[in-house]
Structure formats: structure tokens, C-alpha cells
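Thread: sanity check for a docking pose with nicotinamide-adenine-dinucleotide

Original post by kr_44:
Hi all, I'm comparing my docking run against an independent structure prediction. Below are the sequence and the ligand SMILES. Could someone generate the full complex and paste the C-alpha cells? I mainly care about where the ligand ends up relative to the chain.
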Amino acid sequence: MSRTFNYGVYGVGRIGKVHAAIVREQGHRIVAIGDDAHDAVVVAQEELNARDVRTFNDPTEMARALVGEIDAMIIASHTRDHARHTLPFVKAQIPVYLEKPLTDDLREAFEFVETIGRDPHQLQIGLQRRYDPALLYTKTLLESGVIGEIREIRSVLRDQFPPPPTYRSRGLIIDMGIHVADEAIFFLGEFPNQVWASVHQTKGYNSPIDEGGDTAFVSFTTPSNVVGRLDLSRTHSSGYNNETYIIGTRGTIHTGRFAGYPGPIHVEIWQADGTKHPASKTFEMSYLQGSYPEFLPRFNIAYRRAHQQFREDVESGAPFAVTQNEVLDAQVFVEAAYRSAQQNGARYHLQRFDDLQEYKAACIANGLLSATSTK
Ligand SMILES: NC(=O)c1ccc[n+]([C@@H]2O[C@H](COP(=O)([O-])OP(=O)(O)OC[C@H]3O[C@@H](n4cnc5c(N)ncnc54)[C@H](O)[C@@H]3O)[C@@H](O)[C@H]2O)c1
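Reply from moderator J.T.:
Ran it for you. Here is the predicted complex with nicotinamide-adenine-dinucleotide included:
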């Protein structure tokens, strides 16, 4: 480790406190905490034993006060506030670790990227799968060609429990779906060309917030004719479930089949003769003490690696690996899925362009954005 970072954190609910605790455990300092909700700041100060830090209830004021004093910000407020809360810090040239998604509104996402530009040195998005050892190993296997060409991918993300009462979400397709939408783009190396989806209310689900459904299935195809599916729910009654099943022309890879929670994360490569390939490997989750959010055992290591990489990139001046650019693509993908689910599974066509104006025009033409500023 090189120098000690001074961090500010804005948005200190479940995950904001997790991030703060992680970077502190990694030897860095939290010097300021902020949240629109004063009560959240008070609770976080108590839980993090951080009563003497500076506190804020406004991100613009926080950025103005802390420029030159902090090395980085972590932003983990409500999804709908992410872009608005991040902008003052980006403008002050403070590197930001920003929780996913970029916002819950595609027009705002485009406007945000138009405002800050494509430069990948400004913010790293909290899409922690990009730093997860089992998933990175899976990516290496795919690149080695061990299962041939990819025919089909199925990514599963299922919470066991509903979100907390403080949570605000435009629906699980936008909110959770962004993780596996990005994972699919990352593994396939291509962007979907058609998307369709459905959302469901299953039996016996009681949530303190209304997300319009607790289970969703998102289907898609890609230009090279991969077929894919994202399975999302908040109802996996036996534990938090993240698995990815990829069928190639010469075999399959199954990463993270449910094997207890917390439990082992198997990366199984199955060959054409039905036997397991010797490069199959098992990774471990974290076995934690006390109380913790349900996602922490599975992604504790990934969050830690993401923060370490973030600091290394800040220090070396290297581009961040997952930025406003990657999350914008995932955001377009889930917007199409969300709209499809609202319209009985209507198929949406997607196109991606590096040029933002062309990209936005394609989203308008494909029915993902209105031509005017109404949503
Ligand atoms: N990358 C991941 O694995 C991951 C996991 C969870 C959440 N997230 C993202 O992080 C963001 C925040 O999610 P979260 O789970 O932390 O939500 P949360 O509901 O716990 O916190 C969000 C906001 O709710 C308010 N709040 C929370 N606790 C409060 C309290 N005790 N009193 C008053 N107000 C309170 C605060 O304004 C806080 O910023 C979301 O955008 C979500 O999508 C990412």
C-alpha cells in the first residue's frame, strides 16, 4: 500500500457504511460523512464510531468545503440521486467511487455523460462483479476458448430478502438488473441487439417498498447470435444467489451454482464428453461475524479489490476499468428491459455508438427515450 487516502462518503445507508468500513479496514481515513437525511448521518457516525468527522447534508457544499482536503469520495445515496450528487465532486476534480446505477433515468444518464464527457479517470462505478475473483476467472476461461464459441448465457441475481424501508427503486430490473446486464456485456464483449422482459409478483413476498414486482426475466440476443437471459428476484428463500451459466459450442461453464450461503463459489467447466475440466476451480465467500447486509459474504472480496484498484488507478493515473461509459451501456440495456416488461414483453431493438449524440438518437429511435425532455 502506498499513501493513506482521506475519504468523504455521501449516502450512508447499508452500502455506504459497508464501503466506509472497508476502506478504513484497508488503512485509510473517513474524514467527512454526508447524506440528504440527517438521521442517516447520525446513525452512520454511531455505527462507524466516527463522531468527530465533518458532516454535511448537501453535496455541493461538501465538495466546496473538502476540495484539496480529500483524496476521494464514495457516493452511495439513493439511485435516483447518484448523478446529481456526483456532479459537484467531479467538477471539483475529486475522484469518485460511485455506486451503481448511474441514475434511474436514462435521459439524465445521457445528460450526465454529456456533461462530464467520456474521460475514464473521473469515476469508478460500483459494479463489483468486474473485480470478483470467480467471475474474473470465468472471463479468463471464456477468452481461452475452453468452451468454444458462446451460444447462450444465463445470469442469475436473486436476493433472499426485500430491500430496507429506506430504499428507493424504480424496479428491480433497473436496480438489480444493471449488475448482470453489465456482466453479460463484459463476458460476451458485445452489446445486445434485442431485449424483451417480464416482471412478476410471486407468492408470499412482503416488501416494505413497492417495486412493481419481485421477480423478472430479461431475454436478449446479440449481433453474433448469442441468446441470453437475466433472472432477477428478491425471493430466493434459501440465501443470496448469484450464478452464471454459459453454454459454448464445446462445453459449458457454470459459475456460482447455489451451494449454501455463505458457501463455496464453484467455477465448473463441463466438457463435451460430460466430464469436468481440470481447470475447474472453487473460490470462497467471506464468513463474517455479527450482522451484515445479505450481499456482503458473496461480494466482500470484490468490494475490497474494487477499492484497492480505485486507489491504485488514482495514484498511477491509469483509467478506471468501469466508468460512466460502461454503466451507460448497461443502463440502456435495462431501460429496454424495463420498458418491455411494462408492455407485455414487447421487443426492443438496441444499438450502441461511441458518439453520444448518435447513441442518444438511436435510443430515441428505438423508443427508449422521448425526443423531448419529458421522460
Ligand atoms: N453494489 C452493490 O452490491 C450494492 C448493494 C446495495 C446497494 N447498492 C446501491 O447503493 C445505493 C444505496 O443502497 P442502500 O442499500 O445503501 O440503501 P439504503 O436504503 O440503506 O440507503 C439509501 C438512503 O436511504 C436513507 N437512509 C438509510 N438509512 C437511513 C436511516 N437510518 N435514517 C434515515 N435515512 C436513512 C439515506 O438517505 C441513504 O442515503 C443504491 O443505489 C443501490 O442500488 C449497491
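Residues 109 and 328 are 7 Å apart (CA to CA). Hope that helps with the comparison, let us know if your pose agrees.
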